[in-house]
Structures are given as structure tokens and as C-alpha cells.
Amino acid sequence: MREIEVNLTLRFKMPESGLNVNGVIMGLRNANARISFALLEALFSAVEERTIEQMVDEYPGRYVHNGYQSKERELRTSLGPFRYRLAQMYDKIEQKTVVPLRASGFLPKHRQYTEESTEAGIGSVVHLSYRWSSKEMARIREQAPPASASTLYRRLREFAQQKCSWTDMRKVPYRFLMVDGTGVRLQGYRGTNLGKGEMRWALASLGEKESFELVGFWIDESWKEIKKDLETRIDYKRLEVLFSDGGPGIEEAFLEEGMFHQRCVLHGKRDFSYILYADGFKKAEQAPLKEKLEAIPVFHFNQARLEQLSPEDLPKVKTLFEKTQQGFQEMIELLNPERYPKARVYIENLSQNVATFFSWWLERKTWIPLNTNAVESAFSQVKNRIWSVGKRWSDKGLLNWLQVTMNKIFRLQMWKELWSQYMSLNPEFHLTTIRAIWRWC
């Protein structure tokens, strides 16, 4: 086993005054990827050079240097993409070009990790991480003892209430409203298990092709109470379309006269299996009915396909809309109310608002979202963090945590500015240049 020495030269830009420890830590954190990639590039270069020397020594006259590959190869790492141009050797016997780092096994011979491919494979992701020794961890704990649970809670509460409170949104001309929710385990006084509750949220949008913005979240509140709260903070009378998964009580609570309801197409198709199961039908017995439902045109659309349709496609859209209505009517007639009581009611309700995007386009020649994908991916992050951070939550603790987390995910620019102010990170401390020199010991 050999040792390698890598000397790093780092140059930082430091302000004359106003710099604090938080600014230094943030500057180092931002420079972490560049420093790691400089080290990685030095190690690549060292291993590559040594591999070439070994190939030449072991097979004299067989290999000659053949420059570098024309394109940089990319490794997707936890710190971002790392790019490197691989050296090449020409094999006179095999009469082909050889990449030393692949031939040595340092890099996999498969090319899934390169920029030409999007498929994951062996070696496609490189995780760069640092592990502290037990002695180092002990020294860190001595220098900076951890805050108590009560102190952390107090700091979180103060930060959430002072820095992440809701602004007045009544002057914002929102037209679309989207609501959703998920289950969460709650606790009461001294950790008493209160069972499962509901975490719910609402987002609003200015209209077609506009993003959805977070306008509120609640813990164990009814949809009717949530609607009342929203009416005090946004101009509810401007809303034209409600987007939801069609959960119980949503339509009754939020729909006003003149508003449309767009049920999520994906939820509508997926939830049909649960309804059939509630009627007593297992997977094998559900297959014919599920195939019948999936044949309805409305379930074969996505946003990208909708955007390809133009006003010239009016006859085509009308036909698809009519076939959708006909398909639902056939489903309703097929579902005997005595045998499928829940499924029949479900399809009747679904047929009324899952194809709202068709009628909206026929009237206004613009497309609205046909599902709730606008928030599903972002809220999956929130839900995962909830389950990983704590098994059970108090109402107030979870609300404070959500206040901070939601702003971080949905208002990224605001979050960066807010964090800079809170941590007094101005003026900034940052890395300007970096140089790595290596040698084998």
C-alpha cells in the first residue's frame, strides 16, 4: 500500500470588517464542493499517471500515449456533477484505444456514469462524505456542548414566529386553489400518544401556466375551518378552480358558486382499487373494472400532451371529451348499486369533475393542470422529514417545524435572504481560487 500527499492552496476573499464566525462557516460550506472536487481531480490524475507507468513498464512497446478523450466524463455525486477528461493509450497489439483508469478497474468499464446516459448503473453515483473519529467527535463536543431539547424548541419557535410568519395575501389575485393532506402521529402533554391526526395544506396560483405558492398549513383542522382561515388571508372570491384528490369533505367545504373542481386524474384512477376493495372485491376480481376505467380517454393525458393541442384541434378535443363522458356513463351502468354501492357513488362523483380541464379548454382555449403533481414531489420531502425527525409531534411543535421547512422548500430565494439576515452573513466570506499539488510518498 502506498501513500499519496496532496497539498492544497486555498485563497479566500475576506472583508475588512463585519465578518463573523457564521459567515466563515457558511463560506466554507459553500466552498466544500470545490475543495472536494479539487482533491478528487488530484487523485484521478495521480492514479491515472501511475497506471500509465505500470502499463508501460509491464508491456514495453505495446502502449503509447494517445492524448485525452474529446469530451469530459461526468460523475454524478452527492456534491454535484464532477467532470474529468480521461487519458487514452493506444494498444498496438489489439489496435484499439484503451482508457487506463477503466482498464485498471479504478472506473467501471460500463459507461452508465457518463454524461451520455441517464440510466443508473454500477458506479453511477459517487458519495463523498467525511467521517469523524471518536477522538475528534469528543473534542468537538467539549468545545461546543449541544443545546438542550428545551433550548432547541425555544429557538425553533422564535425563528418560526419571528422570521417565517405569513404575509398579507389578500391583494394577490389568486385564481386557482389546491388543497391536500396526509396523516401524522401526534402527541400530547409529556409525550402522551394521541394517535393519528391530519396535516393539511393549501397552495394558490395566479392562473394558467403559473406556479403554485404555499398559502397555509394546518394540523388536525377540518376542511371547513381551513376554508374560514383562508378567507381571512386571501381574496377567496377571486378563486375560479379548486384542485384536489377528491377526499371526503373537500368539495363541500371549498367550492363556492361559480367555481370549478378539477379532481386529480392520477388519484382518481389509483383510488378506484381502494373503493372496490371496500365493496369486498379483491385484486383478481377488480381487473375487468379497472381495465374498463383505464380505457376512458381522460386517463391517457399528461400536461405535456395537453400543451401540444392547439385551437385547430377543437374537433379532436370535443371527440375526446364526448368519449370520456360516454365511458363514465358506461361505467356507472355497469356498477350495480346493490353489488358495488361505494364504487358506483365514487364513479358518479369522479365523472363530474375529473375532466374539468376539457370543458375549461373548450370555453377558454387554455389548459389548466389535470393533477396535483405541482406539489406532490415537494411535499414528499416534507412528509419524509416529518417521519424521520420525530415519531410523534405536538400540534405547536409540528406547526413551528412546518413553518420553517415549508418556507425553505417553497420559497427558496426568500429563505436564502432570510438566513443571511438571521445569521448576519454580510459581508460574505468566500473561496476565490484553489490549487492542488500531489506527489507519491
Overall pLDDT: 78
Number of DSSP helical runs: 15
Spatial strand order of the main sheet? 10-9-8-11-12
Structural class computed from helices and strand pairing: alpha/beta
Order of helices and strands: EHEEEEEHEHHEEEHEHEHHHHHHHHHE
Count of folded domains: 3
Radius of gyration: 29 Å
Strand content: 15-25%
Helix content: 40-55%
- Please state the overall shape, judged from the principal axes of the Cα atoms: extended
Assembly state (oligomeric): single chain
How far apart are the first and last residues' alpha carbons, in Å? Answer: 11 Å
Number of strands: 13
Task: Flag low-confidence runs.
Answer: 110-133, 139-145
Q: How can the largest sheet be summarized?
A: 5 strands, mixed
Task: Summarize the structure in short.
By secondary structure, this protein is an alpha/beta fold. The protein has 15 helices and 13 strands.
Structure in words:
With 441 residues, this protein is of the alpha/beta class. It folds into 3 domains: 4-118 and 431-440, no CATH class; 158-264 and 392-410; 266-371. The chain contains 15 helices and 13 strands. A 5-stranded mixed sheet has the order 10-9-8-11-12, sandwiched between helices. It has a 3-stranded antiparallel sheet with strand order 2-5-6. The longest helix is centred in the first third of the chain and has 38 residues, at 21-58. It is extended and about 85 Å long. Mean pLDDT is 78; it is low at 110-133 and 139-145.
